[in-house]
Specification:
Layout (H helix, E strand, L loop, with lengths): L2 H10 L1 H20 L5 E11 L16 H11 L3 H11 L6 E4 L1 H4 L6 H11 L5 E6 L7 E8 L2 H17 L8 E2 L12 E2 L3 E4 L4 E5 L5 H21 L4 H10 L1
Parallel strand pairs: 2-3
Antiparallel strand pairs: 1-4, 1-7, 1-8, 3-4, 5-6
Helix pairs in contact: 2-8, 4-7
């Protein structure tokens, strides 16, 4: 019964109500008519290996340190110096390049506050985004995924990411480590060499932008409901109130 006066009020203002519906429909048509933006995506895999590959040597020196070295390289890709290096490869301003490390972006405990904070931090407006991660924690294989405004730019960004990873290689063994190599129990400081090599072909594709139709429909519905609420709150004309009272 309480909704009946509201329905009557909206019925008396059906012309304004129809105008709001037409305006909401116009919003849907306007947004849906625009072409959805597309982006380019490129991806590949690189792996850390010993100079004398583990494929031909059963126990090369330093093989047991490849996993944590790969993890360290992934984390180093998110530094400012690495992002500047990537920007130099692409010949774009440093602010247009962002490196995402999912291992650091995802909270260990899926609580509400850490999840919201990580989601907010993951939002980036940079046109060039490079995502590097170790999808398997026991294999020294790094996944490289590049997103850019177009397919060619995505391929260049992925190639730049691979080049930067390879530049951090230590084929001559210039990094020292106290961690025993090849199962030896000696704690003697020794140099461990490693190389970074591609293990998968560089692939790329063009990804169509998300359809905006569903979002436009949602916005139109909200606008129409707000318009209905405003019409219901505006008081009726005095003459109409008198006429309604006389009829009652």
């Amino acid at each position: 019964m309480e909704a009946l006066p509201l329905v009557r009020r909206l019925f008396h203002r059906r012309r304004l109500l129809a105008g709001g519906a037409l305006a909401a429909l116009a919003v849907v048509i306007l947004v849906a008519s625009r072409p959805s933006p597309s982006t380019g995506v490129a991806w590949t895999l690189v792996a850390l290996d010993t100079p004398k590959s583990q494929l031909v040597d059963s126990s090369p020196s330093g093989a047991d340190s490849m996993t944590w070295r790969a993890s360290l390289l992934v984390h180093l890709m998110g530094t400012d110096s690495t992002q500047r290096e990537l920007a130099q490869h692409l010949k774009v301003p440093t602010g247009e390049v962002t490196v995402v490390d999912p291992a650091l972006a995802t909270p260990k405990l899926p609580a509400s506050m850490p999840k919201k904070a990580s989601d907010a931090a993951a939002i980036t407006l940079a046109p060039y985004v490079l995502t590097v991660e170790m999808k398997n924690s026991v294999l020294p294989v790094v996944s490289v995924v590049a997103e850019a405004p177009d397919r060619a730019a995505a391929k260049r960004l992925a190639q730049a990411g691979v080049s930067v990873l390879q530049a951090h290689a230590s084929a001559g063994g210039r990094y020292e480590s106290l961690i025993p190599a090849s199962g030896k129990k000696s704690r003697t400081r020794r140099l461990q060499a490693f190389v970074v090599e591609g293990v998968a072909a560089l692939r790329s594709k063009t990804v169509a932008g998300k359809e905006m139709l569903s979002a436009a429909i949602g916005v139109a519905i909200v606008l129409f409901l707000v318009w209905c609420a405003l019409l219901s709150l505006v008081p009726s004309h005095p003459r109409r109130r008198l006429r309604a009272a006389a009829v009652a």
